[in-house]
Amino acid sequence: MSEHNIESTLHEDRHFPPHADFIKKTSITTEKLTALYKSAEIDNQAFWADQARTELDWQTPFKTTLDSSNAPFYRWFPDGKLNASYNCLDRQLAQNADKTAIIFEGDAGDVQHISYRELHTRVCTFANALKAQGISKGDRVIIYMPMIAEAVIAMQACARIGAIHSVVFGGFSASSLKDRIEDTTAKLVITADGGHRGGKIIQLKSTTDTALESGCDSVEKVIVFKRTGHDIAMQAGRDIWWSDAEQDQNAECEPVWVEATHPLFILYTSGSTGKPKGIQHSTGGYLLNAITSMRWVFDIQPSDVFWCTADVGWITGHSYVAYGPLATGATIVIFEGVPTYPDAGRFWDMCQRHQVSIFYTAPTAIRALMKAGADIPNSYDLSTLRLLGTVGEPINPEAWMWYHTVIGKEKCPVVDTWWQTETGAHMIAPVPSVTVTKPGSCTRALPGIDAALVNQEGIEITEANQGGYLVIRQPWPSMVQTVWGDDQRYKDSYWPYFDGKYYLAGDSARRDEEGYFWIMGRIDDVLNVSGHRLGTMEIESALVAHPRVAESAVVGKPHDIKGEAVVAFVVLNGDRPDGGIDEALTEELRTWVGEQIGAIAKPDEIRYSDNLPKTRSGKIMRRLLRNIAKGEEITQDTSTLENESILPQLEGKA
Ligand code: PRX
Questions:
Q1: pLDDT tens digit sequence for 27-58
Q2: Where in the numbering of this chain does the AMP-binding enzyme C-terminal domain appear (predicted)?
Q3: With bands split at pLDDT 50, 70 and 90, how would you rate the model's confidence at 6?
Q4: Peptide bond connecting 61 to the previous residue in cis, omega within 30 degrees of 0
């Protein structure tokens, strides 16, 4: 950690109290929120136990709230049993069976409404189909689907029978898919022939075939949903159409009651070293915080139409598409396509047509739509919107203000929610009926969440605007349980300092005079591209796997829309191209990285040099490379470089 100087430069002092119209409708009053904070402060475990009894239906009620005997492997509600799918679906049947659970809109504009009753039937039928394929409690199932209702049905069906799902984002390559299949030793893959995105077909089945050709011996069956209808190969004995798998299956499926600590899912995320980590989440604790955050941060009401634009391939799509909103009986929107197809009005057109009241998206999307101009959103009726949210990366105040004024017409609070794949649910975020928001700040920790800033010794930083390491000092229900199959990596990644007492988020932040948190960025070698985490090491490994590449170093540089752009410094086997330019090779390497990881990881820029700048001990001088990528003046001591002539090469000037 010592390499990093944490300095904060952002100054922003605009304040936005909640709008009176919003307060009128809320169920979270200032008094109620104060009481929640107070009871969490008095007894954190009793507070969560109380929430868990109120918010979840248990088949076997828990007696123990938290088992810390094997910290940091905390076990919440360990002797309780429940089922996540039951808590999402069956609970709605008595009162809300005919309520719309899902409004699905396809890329081409096709719309389906699915009621809670129908969703229950479809999940049960598919759960029975999974059982018929030999899937039972604890088996891992990979879901590699387009963003369609069936992706959520597949997740819920796994949850219903205690199978552990691992959703792989449809934009990931065959090689990334294979890594995840092999790490989970999944028995079954659920995919589709393809999906539609921006008028194009995304090949999913053929990518799955490529992944399976090269290994993945654990996979016995592949269930294929027919979405596009284009020709694909089906392998006899292994591949089954979804509709055939469902043939003759019963529409009732008794949930399998699992321990609260039973893994609900594994979701892979990038770290600073090695391959992506399989973040393992529990059933009870995870679902609890997905629900409490729906209430506190999204103020969810029975009449809301809730649209979180994230794909189910990311944690946001787990907590705020597949689980949290359904467990609170909401109506959700699921969208297959992209915000700019057929034009940059797509989101606003959908908000108008589906009468969306809560809209949750990423700063990168806001910045892209902001560039398209205010006339586009201004031509739609956005009056049903009452709350706006953002997630994934720091939102710059300019984009926050645009969102607030142009989309929210100054009446919708904006909730900037800080959390991570590992935290499972919102940790630091405004409670929109109470919190005075400030553009660019995720404000305060939620009730029961003990977030703090500490210095390298683990001592709390109390001075205002002083940067520090963001930590969470007490366990919380939806916390990561471990890294799948690698307990040591879990310990090393999240509990490496402070005697293993505090969860290290990997972000730096500051707190202002009023105690509001301002996230400053990552402290490790992780990039945040369009709100998605990418390990620099992962991209470097992909590059050096190419026969022409001897060595590479990857850093981020600020990007107007994506937040960060990927810049790769590459040393080739053999000669450096003349003047450092070889467009054909650059394109080849970009495509290669796309194939190895996925399109989001493609470097925006590749610079070739004779070697990489290293310290005497042989470590790559990453800070220097970051400065160079940003075009900043070089202030570091470069006298240790073997060959100072590489500096102009790294700068792209020679
Ligand atoms: O750096 C923080 C940033 O995204 C990281 C978590 O990434 P991931 O696990 O992919 O989850 C993204 C969706 C929850 C964090 O360590 N981050 C997330 N939300 C914010 C943020 N940075 C600033 N402000 C946020 N609201």
A1: 999 999 999 999 999 999 999 999 999 999 99
A2: 538-619
A3: low
A4: no
Q: How far is ligand 1, taken at its centre, from the CA of residue 394, in Å?
A: 8
CATH number of the domain enclosing 139: 3.40.50.12780
Mutate which of 297, 318, 393, 469 to test ligand 1's pocket (most atoms within 8 Å of Cβ)?
A: 393
What is the pTM assigned to this prediction? 0.94
Residue with tokens 């409404």: 113
Asked whether 298 and 155 are in contact (CB, 8 A), the reply is no
Torsion over CA: 492, 45, 508, 280 (sign)? positive
**Are 100 and 203 in a shared domain?**
yes
For ligand 1, atom 5, the nearest C-alpha belongs to: 420
pLDDT at 11: 64
Between CA 323 and CA 325 the distance in angstroms is: 6
Among protein residues, the one whose CA lies closest to atom 11 of ligand 1: 420
Ligand 1 midpoint to CA 419 (Å): 5
CB of 503 shorter than 6 A to ligand 1: no
Residue 496 sits in the same domain as residue 565? no
- How much is the pLDDT for 4? 41
State residue 420 phi and psi, 5-degree precision. Answer: -150, 165
* DSSP β-ladder status, 221-225 and 239-241: parallel
Compute the C-alpha angle 510/512/517, nearest 5°. 50
| Residue closest by Cα to atom 23 of ligand 1 | 394
User: Do 470 and 362 sit in the same domain of this protein?
Assistant: yes
Take atom 2 of ligand 1 and give the residue whose Cα is closest: 393
